């Protein structure tokens, strides 16, 4: 059945845009580069938030809230940080509108701010300015704080969920007494993100570190998780930064150690965003619509009754009410779609488009036979199943679907990580069989930049626990001790 | 024990400010009028969000997210709306910073926006512009959407939680086919707010309607809940607006009805904010610190061990672990404060300051006797209780505390609602025994304004289901059919 969506093999980018719109996930707003997240899309974000928030709390973090607006002078204090974000900042300059002589609403020039304010693109500066007041001694450390917030980066080229001027995210900002502790925190949060990606989004990721060129502006080290989309492009799904003492020095945040000596505080920051919704869509969906992993699907099971007479519907309803109660005990969400304004076929198509993992159809014949028809979204297979023990069967199937979606993505990635030893081969594969390309590189920013300029491929990461292997840089032939992962990326 | 907080009888306003800081709830930020909500304060907001969000979902609402920035032209489309908010808008005019010749970071004048963008003070305009695309027919109605977001109103006089330039809130925006439905929604959400205030915040509220002068900018009718603080000032704790067809007309949102006729859509909006945290503090707390109703307290029970030797602590710990398990089954949160850096007395003072409803102290003698000492924060009473059945006793006490805090606030309000029949008496009471003053008013905006100018008292609301009673306006002597509630307010 056609949903009016272009095939992803024909135009992957267009397929994504149409799917986001048709599946009621989001739409563009009249504000350039900003999107409206519709209820169905937002409910996935809410599920992600709930899971991540628990993971953060289980690792000792608390939430707090810091101001949206950052004084320009703060923003400028850490040199590489402002360098990285200055070109994409929304700037507040006035605090009042007024009616002009013609009755038009205009900016009131009498209400010009003494100092311009920046809408946060990230909150390191305002937070480290605050931490100065919170930290005197080692007893005040560590500080383990997270913030759920909106941020703004004035992007020139935008794409829904993946790159928008405003987006929603969480940003963790922690303060520690030693570099070792801060690095351990950075790595712990990378593990949390990888766990979340693999076990909830069903998205296999490579954990690694960025090259200096690709680091967060102000970080000494940036760790990341990288995922592969179905078109062979990579997507950075989360980052965790070891910030060293850069922000503590910029904002003069010192503490007295156990040894009574004064030192600057060590910092980390880490974040994931609504971009993950884009990753979820791009990684698993197909030409018929979304394919959502059951653990994050807003509706896990939908029941569509098939009937002619009201009394048939009554029978079906009685059965579905019992099933609903059983599923609720298992924490499985179920929707019973009794609308009489839509035919069963239209409902099937709608839930396929929206990626509901399991569909249960029940007709009068089923009621006589004590059966239902179960249809899986991921494999598009159907089975006729007994009504007896159906809740258990559904629970089991949802687990199978979650595992299967992960396995499919895992196998796809395995097929699309290729070791490459020559630059010609590298360029050929980027066009013919894009994916992660594992290649030797001489370790210089110049070579990295040249490859990027010539091929649009970047070093996605140096995988953690990378195998050491003698080789030669594919571009310069200089010696190299390990392969790194290249790809074109979102 | 002195916490270094001024007495509330001496200076209520200063008491509030000091309490907010000392209890680690929040602090001012360097951005004028914006505050930093610290983890302890934010955890109360998280509890409020969880309860309200469930209430909204139980009444059929879904969450969504709309852009932070609103084009100035949208903002100007509803005349009284822009009138109401134009004077307190943060305006974004540029989207880039740059280095000038001297290396200073400055606004890049080449990156001036064609149209200025307003940071949302509320989202009616951007949302109704969006609803135009969502609504064609009565089948698309109702739309029941809520948003959790930050908003900004450039306030000249600010006070933490109660009035800040940026605040966190939820804003519901619903669309309906008929005025009746929209009014029913407006009233339903007022009931939800009143239920939340009374049963969770332990805060008795008066439900009522605003006079035209005090209505939300763009509303046909504004419903509110009004609470009384301990200094006799009123505080508006939530509002629910019937917007009529004003925004539908401003944004051309029409629908085809069942009768096939085209009509404008009917609207409501409703919101509560982090202001409720201010209300919670102001309504219940005392000179020793916060008094939190158990249902919203981040920590409901704290256990402080009193011991000299490590083996004593081991015994106590073993017992507390068992208690913790029992309380977790009852969904009661418990903190066991084993820190050896603080003495028991310091811990007692800290949890008193932070308003933890119940404190359990256990010493070696208690372990021998099978007892504990239980101390209530609200009444400051202590009891020695058997360890046997302690979880049940705690559960019961928490319920008693919740009820007692409510009753105390209810009795205080009952003592401070006074019927007044003369303007002299009215003015005298405002100074001598402030509270809600129930008085006759001639129903004109001019009289209302004059009373406000002369006394700083405003009409807080016309209570719902108000008793009809013939009388004379206390100021003009003109006839009146009902009393309304006046007060000085936050």
From TrEMBL, chains A, B:
Recorded superkingdom: Bacteria
EC numbers for this chain: 6.1.1.15
Enzyme class per UniProt: ligase
Signal peptide range: none
Annotated compartments: Cytoplasm
Keyword set includes Protein biosynthesis: yes
A biological process term (GO) from this entry: prolyl-tRNA aminoacylation
GO cellular component: aminoacyl-tRNA synthetase multienzyme complex; cytoplasm
SUPFAM superfamilies named among the record's database cross-references: C-terminal domain of ProRS (SSF64586), Class II aaRS ABD-related (SSF52954), Class II aaRS and biotin synthetases (SSF55681)
Keyword match Signal: no
InterPro entries in the cross-refs: aa-tRNA-synt_IIb (IPR002314), aa-tRNA-synth_II (IPR006195), aa-tRNA-synth_II/BPL/LPL (IPR045864), Anticodon-bd (IPR004154), Anticodon-bd_dom_sf (IPR036621), Pro-tRNA-ligase_IIa_arc-type (IPR004499), Pro-tRNA_ligase_II_C (IPR016061), Pro-tRNA_synth_II (IPR017449)
Keywords: Aminoacyl-tRNA synthetase, ATP-binding, Cytoplasm, Ligase, Nucleotide-binding, Protein biosynthesis
Catalytic activity: tRNA(Pro) + L-proline + ATP = L-prolyl-tRNA(Pro) + AMP + diphosphate
Domain Aminoacyl-transfer RNA synthetases class-II family profile: 39-293
Record text about domains: Consists of three domains: the N-terminal catalytic domain, the anticodon-binding domain and the C-terminal extension.
Family matches, as NCBIfam families: proS_fam_I
Task of the protein: Catalyzes the attachment of proline to tRNA(Pro) in a two-step reaction: proline is first activated by ATP to form Pro-AMP and then transferred to the acceptor end of tRNA(Pro).
PANTHER family linked: BIFUNCTIONAL GLUTAMATE_PROLINE--TRNA LIGASE, PROLYL-TRNA SYNTHETASE
Family named by the database record: Belongs to the class-II aminoacyl-tRNA synthetase family. ProS type 3 subfamily.
Protein name, per record: Proline--tRNA ligase
Lineage: Bacteria, Pseudomonadati, Bacteroidota, Sphingobacteriia, Sphingobacteriales
Gene name as annotated: proS
């Amino acid at each position: 059945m056609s949903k009016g969506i272009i095939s992803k093999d024909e135009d992957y980018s267009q397929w994504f845009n149409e799917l986001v719109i048709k599946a009621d996930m989001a739409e563009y707003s009249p504000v350039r580069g900003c999107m409206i997240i519709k209820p169905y899309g937002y409910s996935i974000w809410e599920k992600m938030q709930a899971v991540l928030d628990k993971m953060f709390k289980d690792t000792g973090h608390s939430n707090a809230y810091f101001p949206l607006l950052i004084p320009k002078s703060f923003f400028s204090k850490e040199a590489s940080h402002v360098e990285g974000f200055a070109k994409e900042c929304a700037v507040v300059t006035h605090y009042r509108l007024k009616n002009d002589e013609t009755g038009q609403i205009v900016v009131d020039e009498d209400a010009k701010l003494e100092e311009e304010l920046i809408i946060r693109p990230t909150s390191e500066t305002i937070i480290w300015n605050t931490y100065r007041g919170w930290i005197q001694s080692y007893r005040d450390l560590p500080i383990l704080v997270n913030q759920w917030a909106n941020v703004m980066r004035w992007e020139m080229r935008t794409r829904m969920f993946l790159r928008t001027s405003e987006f929603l995210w969480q940003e963790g900002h922690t303060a520690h007494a030693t570099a070792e502790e801060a690095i351990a925190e950075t790595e712990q949060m990378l593990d949390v993100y990888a766990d979340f990606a693999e076990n909830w989004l069903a998205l296999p990721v490579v954990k690694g570190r960025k090259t200096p060129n690709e680091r967060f502006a102000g970080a000494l080290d940036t760790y990341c998780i990288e995922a592969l989309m179905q078109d062979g492009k990579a997507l950075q799904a989360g980052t965790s930064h070891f910030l060293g003492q850069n922000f503590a020095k910029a904002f003069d945040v010192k503490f007295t150690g156990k040894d009574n000596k004064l030192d600057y505080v060590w910092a980390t920051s880490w974040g994931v965003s609504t971009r993950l919704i884009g990753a979820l869509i791009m990684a698993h969906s197909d030409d018929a619509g979304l394919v959502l992993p059951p653990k994050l699907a807003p509706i896990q099971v939908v029941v569509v009754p098939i009937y002619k007479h009201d009394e048939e519907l009554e029978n079906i309803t009685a059965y579905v009410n019992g099933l609903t109660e059983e599923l609720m005990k298992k924490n499985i969400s179920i929707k019973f779609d009794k609308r009489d304004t839509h035919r069963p076929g239209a409902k099937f198509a709608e839930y396929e488009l929206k990626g509901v993992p399991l569909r249960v159809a029940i007709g009068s014949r089923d009621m006589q036979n004590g059966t239902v028809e179960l249809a899986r979204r991921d494999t598009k297979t159907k089975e006729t199943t007994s009504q007896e023990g159906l809740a258990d069967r559904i629970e089991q199937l949802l687990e199978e679907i979650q595992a299967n979606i992960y396995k499919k993505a895992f196998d796809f990635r395995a097929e699309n990580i290729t070791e490459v030893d020559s630059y010609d081969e590298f360029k050929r594969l980027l066009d013919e069989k894009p994916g992660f390309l594992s290649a030797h590189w001489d370790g210089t920013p110049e070579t990295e930049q040249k490859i990027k300029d010539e091929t649009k491929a970047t070093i996605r990461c140096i995988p953690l626990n990378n195998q050491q292997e003698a080789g030669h840089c594919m571009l310069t032939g200089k010696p190299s001790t390990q392969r790194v992962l290249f790809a074109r990326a979102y």
